[in-house]
Amino acid sequence: MTPLNKKIIEDFNYALIKSFGEEFNNVDPQVSIAKDTRHADYQVNIAFSLAKKLKKKPQEISQIIIGNLPVSPVYETPSIGGPGFINLRIKKGYLEDQIKLLCEDERLGILKTHNSQKIIVDFSSPNIAKEMHVGHLRSTIIGDSLSRILEFIGHDILRLNHVGDWGTQFGMLISYLKEVFPNALYEANVLQIEDLVSFYRKAKKRFDEDIQFQEISREAVVKLQLGNEEYRKAWKLLCEQSRREFQVIYDILQIELTERGESFYNPFLEEIVNDLDKQKILEISDGAKCVFLEGFINKSGNPLPLIVQKSDGGYNYATTDLAALKYRINIDKAKHIIYVTDAGQSNHFAQVFQIAQRAGFLREETSVSHIPFGLVKGEDGKKLKTRSGETIRLKDLLDKSIYQARKNLENRLKTENREESQEFINNVANVVGIGSVKYADLSQNRNSDYIFSYDKMLSLQGNTAPYMLYAYARIKSILREEKINYAALENTQVILQDEAEIDLAKYLLQLNEVIEIIENTLLPNRLCEYLYELSKRFNRFYENCPVLKSVDSTKFSRLVLCDLTARTLELGLSLLGIDVLERM
Ligand code: ARG
C-alpha cells in the first residue's frame, strides 16, 4: 500500500516541475492533514513559500499548480481556500479500496523503512544502590515505547541500560558493608540486605558523621579502582542486590533491556583523555584535565571547562559518556544514538556531544539525540511524595495503581451485576493499573512536567488507558457476536455511506503518517492523541451507524471498520508497551 500522503506528494512534485521548471524538483510541497475537515482532508501549503521567489500571489501560484496536476484516482478536483492553500478531498471510491487493502495488511499501512539503521536507545539507567525514582520510571516508559516504534519501522535497536555502577559512592558502601556484615564477603554469594536503599541511607549517615570513616571510604574507592579482589567482590555483591531490585520493576512493567553500566567503559577512559590530548583540546586547570567548551560560559563570562580527569586521577560522569559514545560508534556501529533522560541533563549531553565532535570520533554519519523530559509532580504541584513526606518507591507506586484499578473494577462489576473469576479480576487490574501509569506518562508531551494523579489516569473518561482499553473491549464484543468472514472479503466491496463511517475510514488510513511523524520527532504522545481521536471517531460511527442490525453488504463493510479499529488500537497500544483486554 502506498500511503495516501505519498501519492499526493508525488503528484505535486510532478506539477511543480511542470509549472515552474526542473529547479523545483524535490521541493517539499508541504502536504498535511487538514485541521478543519469541513473543507478538506488534506491541505497543500507550498504556494506561500514560493510567493516571494516567483513574484506571484499565492492564489495565482496555486491556480497554476492545480492546472498541471494529473487527474487523480485519489482526490477530487482540488479547490483553493482562503489566501491560497490547496484543499484536497479524498475520493470515496479510493477510500473504499484502501480500506480493503488495509484490512489485508498486517502492518496496517505502516511501511518498513528502506533505510534500516542500527539505533541505540539509552534509557532507564538507574544508579546502583540508590533509589530508582520517578525520573527513571519516565525514562523507562518513554525509552521502551520509542524502541518499540523504531523497531516496528524496521530499525535494528539496541536497548542499553547505562546503570550508574561506578563512582565514589562505592567506597562508602563497601566500607559500611565490611563493618556491618564482616563475613558477608566470605560466606555468601548472595547478600542478605533487606533493602539496599535504606542500607545506602545508613551508610551515608555513617559517612557524614565520621571523618575517619570518610578516609576509609576514600581509600576503598582507590582499592576498588585498582582492582583489589576483595573490594571487587563486595562491589559485585552490591550490584547484584541492586539488579534484583531493579528487575522487580522491569518485570512488572514488562521491560527488556541490556545492562551495560558505567563500569563497562572503565578500561577506555584513559584512551579518551589521550584522544583529547592528541586533538590538542586538553588543558590543565587547577590540576585537573579539562576541555574548555565552546558556547558555554561560567558566571564570570569565561569559557566553561569540562573536567575529564580530576586532579586525584579520578574520572567523571562525562568522561564515561565520552567513552560510551566512542564505543557505541566504533564497536556497536550505531548510526543514531538516543539518550532518554530528564531535561536537567540537556547541558551535559550538549557538552559531551560537542567534545566528541571536536575529538573527531563523532562525525556526520552518526546522529546523536538527547530526548529530554519534564518532571513528574504530585497533585499539589510539588515533588511526588508519600503522605508522610518520603519519596515514593516505584514498587509501591505501581502496586497502588493496580490496587486502585482493582477497586474501580469491583465497583463497576457490582453496578453491572456481573460475577467474574478472581483470575479475570487480577488480570484486568494488572493490565489497567500498569497500562494507566504508562499511558499517563506517554500521552503528555514529554517536554512538559506532568501531574501524577491516580484518579485521572485510571478514569474511564478522557485520554486515558482505560478509555482506550474499554473502546477495544467493546469492539471485540461486537466482533464476537458476528465473525467477519475474511474469505468473503476478496469478492465483496467495502461501501462507505454515512458521514461518520467515511470519517472513521479516513482516520484509519492515517496511522502510517502519525508513525512517520514520531520517527522524526520522537514524541510518543502523537500516537496517544491519534488513538484517542480514533476511539472518539469510532464511538461516533457506532452511535450513528447500526452494525449488527444492518443489511448484508453494509453490515460487512461496517464490521470491517470495527475490526480495523480494534486492530489499530491493539497495534498502537502495543507500540506504547500496553497490553489489551478482550473483555474488561
Ligand atoms: N544514571 C543516570 C541518572 O540516574 C542516567 C544515565 C543516562 N545515560 C547516560 N548515558 N548518561 O541520572
What does this structure look like?
Keywords: Aminoacyl-tRNA synthetase, ATP-binding, Cytoplasm, Ligase, Nucleotide-binding, Protein biosynthesis. InterPro entries: aa-tRNA-synth_I_CS (IPR001412), Arg-tRNA-ligase (IPR001278), Arg-tRNA-synth_N (IPR005148), Arg-tRNA-synth_N_sf (IPR036695), ArgRS_core (IPR035684), DALR_anticod-bd (IPR008909), Rossmann-like_a/b/a_fold (IPR014729), tRNAsynth_Ia_anticodon-bd (IPR009080). One of its GO terms (cellular component) is cytoplasm. Monomer. It contains 22 helices and 14 strands. Among the domains are: 4-90, Gyrase A, domain 2 (2-Layer Sandwich); 169-255, no CATH class; 408-575, Isoleucyl-tRNA Synthetase, Domain 1 (Orthogonal Bundle). The mean pLDDT is 93. The protein is 53% helix and 11% strand. It is globular and about 85 Å long. With 584 residues, it is of the alpha/beta class. A five-stranded parallel beta sheet has the order 7-6-5-11-12, sandwiched between helices. Arginine (ARG) binds next to helix 12 and strand 11.
List keywords for this structure.
single chain, 584 residues, alpha/beta, Gyrase A, domain 2, Isoleucyl-tRNA Synthetase, Domain 1, 5-stranded parallel β-sheet, 4-stranded antiparallel β-sheet, 22 helices, 53% helix, binds arginine
Overall geometry: globular
- The total beta strand count reads 14
Which sequence of strands runs across the widest sheet? 7-6-5-11-12
CATH topology of the domain at 408-575: Isoleucyl-tRNA Synthetase, Domain 1
**Quaternary assembly:** single chain
> What is the radius of gyration?
29 Å
CATH superfamily of the domain at 408-575: Isoleucyl-tRNA Synthetase, Domain 1
| SS element count, helices | 22
Biggest sheet, open or closed, and with what strands and sense?
5 strands, parallel
Listed once per kind, the bound small molecules are: arginine
Helicity range: 40-55%
**What is the CATH architecture descriptor of the domain at 408-575?**
Orthogonal Bundle
Strand content: 5-15%
SS class:
alpha/beta
N- and C-termini, Cα separation: 34 Å
CATH class categorisation of the domain at 408-575 = Mainly Alpha
